[in-house]
Model the fold of this input.
Amino acid sequence: MQPEPILRVRGLKTEFQSAAGVVRAVDGLDLDIFPGEIVGVVGESGSGKSAMAFSILRLTPGKIVAGEVQFRGRNLLDLSEAEMERLRGDRIAMIFQDPMTSLNPLMRIGSQIGEALRYHMGLSRRQADGTAVQLLQSVHLPDAERRIHDYPHQLSGGQRQRVVIAMGISCAPDLLIADEPTTALDVTIQAQILNLISETRQRSSAAVLLITHDLGVVAQLCDRVAVMYAGQVVEQGPTTDLFANPQHPYTIGLLRSTPHGRRRGEPLRPIPGQPPRPGDIATGCSFAPRCHLVEERCHHQAPALLQLGGGRQARCLLREESAHESTP
Amino acid sequence: MNPLLEVQGLIKYYPVGSRFSAQRRTLRAVDGIDLTVQPGETLGLVGESGCGKSTTVRLIMRLLEPTAGRILFDGQDMSSMSSAQLKVVRRRMQIVFQDPFASLNPRKTAGRIIADPLAIHRIGSAAERRSRVQDLLERVGLDRTHAERYPHEFSGGQRQRISIARALACSPQLIVADEPVSALDVSIQAQVLNLLQELQRDLALTMIFISHDLSVVQYVSDRIAVMYLGKIVELGPSQAIYYHPQHPYTRSLLSAIPLPDPTRREAIPPLESELPSPMNVPSGCRFHPRCPLATERCRHESPELRPVGTTLVACHNV
Done:
């Protein structure tokens, strides 16, 4: 039997006001995350993956205009701001791309980690300091007892991201949202941090929503993948199946674009054209202008997210024949 | 064949700390590099942030003054050149920077940006420059009409095409590309990599390609130099380095790249600890504090590059 998802997003739409009018960054997003799994959300800049994460936490500067975000059976969009505050950093934690923006430069590391512990768990300052040291040790920051007295600028980028992860897991959240957590880091440090995220999941059984542009990170770390394009999930499935047999032309294009393992002189097959600018309104399929399999109907008819069996979904008219049923 | 570029014993040190302090320290950004680049080849330069790869190419371009060492371009020693002579040589070498948002003047049109090098070097009449700009725009996959537009009207990939067109304007022999695709999305990255390869083939360009991403570097390069803390630790044919790395650092760097293939989840333990500061370079082999193979000898004796198979490796233990 399928367990209940810990997070269930349905039809989420988030809009931003811009000089050019209303921009819909998230455009009818469906996503499930089950307890203890790592789900990767991949997409290029402007695909709406960060806007989605901020919408789930209700931290988006834009406006959520439709949809629901069920977290452990409650619709987060119905909660009061006070209820949301109790949830953030406690049941749902977030790790951002640039650790410097999520750390207060004027506060010592120990106090920053302790803040959530004192707020959510009611620990005293001394208890919080002790727990902060343990947390820093669990993310393998050397010299933790001394480090809690340091300020963020005294740490390297990798060390800062360890501190941010320690803050993220401090209250043993059910869901950890990590937005490009390793993008600002060198590859050898990235490998250390990815190992740490995977270790954290095993130890705490938290589900992880990992947002990234890097297909390699997804392939190495995630149980399931959702591919986003123009504010929608265009394909979703278990990582191994999706990489072995991608169904959506955009996913196929992305996988073909990577230079990994290709020899010199062998031309890459990039996806032609540019991703749609936010605010471009597409009739029909938003990927149609760049699609190598495009048909006439793709320009007029918007595809639904089709169930393909084996936990796989794709938003493409050409997959209708292989679909079992339409979206629930 | 004579090399187009020869670098001998290149060193760049920066003094750090107060001018009046008795303990002025030295940041060793580039610490003794020898390189040759043959005409028509692409040399890849890889390493993590702080390894000195960008400083190296800025020294080669003479955007920075070296502390020591010689740079020979087409057999001529650039360090002894007058500024007039330097200007002539600079026409023949051009650079493409990483960030296409920072490297284009937002107040100039794409046409002006591309024509600037021609104007600086007084090449052609105004009309000739205009037609050259249009040719260049088409050459890099943009449209002639784009000459009238400003940088903010272009996407990241298109801006990088403009940077490439500007670099090509004076018909250089050597292009230095410093992380030219790192700021771009995957699908756009592939477009720009294809363009660079096409241009290199058609215009017989020599290229130095810098990246922190070994899988990109192996794809574009004939040879690869791997840098660590200001020194080259391994140098050789691209395929040999990518498929059979010898130096323990190259191996760690390669195994740290997350492969886009979930069937190959490799449980190679990542490198311990972090890059030491270039102000405090470890004794002996500078990689020894992080090296799984380090022995007593590595603590004291700095290894020189020596041939191992088809590559040059600076390691006592391979």
Q: What stands out?
A: The longest helix of chain A spans residues 187-204. Chain A has a mean pLDDT of 90. The CA atoms of residues 167 and 208 of chain A lie 15 Å apart. Chain A touches chain B through 50 residues (CB under 8 Å).
